[in-house]
Structure formats: structure tokens, C-alpha cells
Design goal:
By secondary structure, the chain is α/β, with parallel strands linked by helices. The protein has one domain: 3-Layer(aba) Sandwich (Rossmann fold), CATH 3.40.50.150.
Length: 273
């Protein structure tokens, strides 16, 4: 299955759960990778900003506030369910459209800045997506994007993986993802691709973020919205889905009877036109 056949529909089905999880970590200032994207853009009132793969408006709301009252935020995403939620937030100076970030329907040099929070890793043609971001930015404009790195070697995720292997079918695989995943995981390759897309300057930094989960129940409940887990859980009958969650919670409690802390790492690309 191709990326654009798999991810938009899956994210649309799980948009509400995704929004609840992201709203929580943003409110607690734990989403350091995404927050770093906003910091790097140096936003000011009156700017026109593009939010690529905007999801339910996770970055859109704080960005729109920074460019208000005369500035404008435009968010785009291929998942219609995400766009519906973003529109429902009711941001006065923002608009949202279903759109492919590899084929943006905007004129050249239209935006003063562009952001992308945890979306580039899903595009099959990363070079094309970066080229489109560069095309729609005016000279001197800033672009920043955060992508998550693997954290599978932490004990809480290892415990969940063991339960997943007992209960769930394999995750559906996107057959056109390997090149992009390899590229964003390699800071030198990621930077080089941005430069080849036309950006004058580019660098990649590693941002670490700590997330605190109040309990095993909270962690399991919220991580069900992550794309790879959601795509597997939704294929279970309701009774088996609940049994899986019960097993995951009990297994985590044995190691972590109280709150749980996990550490995530992100590559944050910053580039200028």
C-alpha cells in the first residue's frame, strides 16, 4: 500500500484521539520538538505563515496568535478528518485546506514562513515536499520542521511492544516510505536534501523532550492514537481490543506502578530561502 492510500484515511479515523494527546503535551510544554519549530521561525504580527501537515491545528493555534491581528495562518493536510478538527478550533486568522504538501496550490513566494510539526516523515517524496516548501516561500523566509526519532529502546515502549506482539497483527506497511524515513533519521542527509531543494542555509539539531504520563492507563489510552498502533488496534474486535489494553496496562503497572516518564528525541530542520 502506498503512503497516500494508508496515512490520510488512518489519521482521519483517529483524529480526535490524536488531538487529545497532542493538546495535553503542548499544554504541559513537553512537545519540545514542535515548540522549537515555532521558536526558529521568529514570527511577528502581520506575517503570512504556512503550516504543513497541520493535523488538528496543534501548531496552527500558537502560530496564528503570534502573527495576529493582521497576519494569516494557512494550514494544509491530506487527512480530511484532521482538517475538520482544525477548522472547528475556530482560530480567527486561520484557514485550513485538504492539500498534498508535495503539490501545494499556492503561488511562488507567497508565504513569509513555513512550519511542519511531525509530518515530513510521512511523505513518500521528501525532496519534492521540501522543494514545494521552498517554492512558496519569499526570499529570506524561514522554514522549520520537526520529525521524531525512534525511542524503542526505553523500557515502557519495550513493555508495550511485547504486549503488541502477543495481541496485534503486523502494522500495515507503506511501500514507498523507506527512503524518507532513512533521510530524516540522518541529520547530514536531511540537511543536504534541504540545500538541494534550493534553501540557501540549512541545519539540523537534536531536541530531546520528556513526557510525563500520570499512569499506565493514561499512557496506553493516549498512545492508541499513534499511527502504527492505531492501524493495528482498529483491526481487532472490540472485546479483543479491550483485552489488549488491559494486558498492556497490567504489564506497564508491574514496572511502573505510578507515573511514567519517557524521553523522546527529534530532528529539527531549520532552513532559510
Amino acid at each position: 500500500m502506498k503512503s497516500k492510500e494508508l496515512f490520510p484515511a488512518m489519521f482521519s479515523r483517529n483524529a480526535a484521539a490524536y488531538q487529545r494527546r497532542l493538546d495535553g503535551i503542548m499544554a504541559r510544554k513537553e512537545a519540545r520538538g514542535r515548540q522549537r519549530v515555532i521558536e526558529l521561525l521568529d514570527l511577528r504580527p502581520g506575517m503570512r505563515v504556512l503550516d504543513l501537515a497541520c493535523g488538528p491545528g496543534t501548531l496552527s493555534k500558537p502560530i496564528a496568535a503570534l502573527v495576529a491581528p493582521d497576519g494569516e495562518l494557512v494550514g494544509v493536510d491530506l487527512a480530511e478528518g484532521m482538517i475538520q478538527l482544525a477548522r472547528a478550533v475556530g482560530i480567527p486568522n486561520a484557514s485550513f485546506q485538504v492539500m498534498d504538501i508535495e503539490q501545494l496550490a499556492f503561488p511562488d513566494a507567497w508565504f513569509d514562513a513555513a512550519a511542519c510539526g511531525h509530518g515530513l516523515q510521512f511523505v513518500p517524496d521528501l525532496a519534492r515536499a521540501l522543494g514545494e516548501a521552498h517554492r512558496v516561500l519569499r526570499p529570506g523566509a524561514r522554514f522549520a520542521a520537526s520529525v521524531p526519532l525512534s525511542n524503542d529502546n526505553q523500557r515502557p515502549w519495550m513493555v508495550i511492544d511485547e504486549v503488541v506482539d502477543r495481541w496485534l497483527p503486523p502494522a500495515p506497511a507503506a511501500t514507498d516510505q523507506q527512503s524518507t524515513r532513512s533521510m530524516v533519521a540522518d541529520p547530514d542527509a536531511f540537511r543536504a536534501l534541504a540545500l538541494s531543494a534550493g534553501f540557501a542555509v540549512a541545519h539540523v539539531e537534536v531536541i530531546e523532550e520528556k513526557v510525563r504520563w500520570e499512569s499506565a492507563e493514561q499512557l496506553v489510552g493516549l498512545c492508541m492514537s499513534w499511527w502504527d498502533l492505531a492501524a493495528r488496534v482498529e483491526r481487532l474486535a472490540p472485546d479483543r481490543r479491550q483485552a489488549f489494553m488491559d494486558d498492556a496496562i497490567a504489564s506497564l503497572r508491574r514496572d511502573h506502578p505510578g507515573s511514567i516518564e519517557t524521553i523522546g528525541r527529534n530532528h529539527v530542520l531549520f532552513a532559510t530561502v
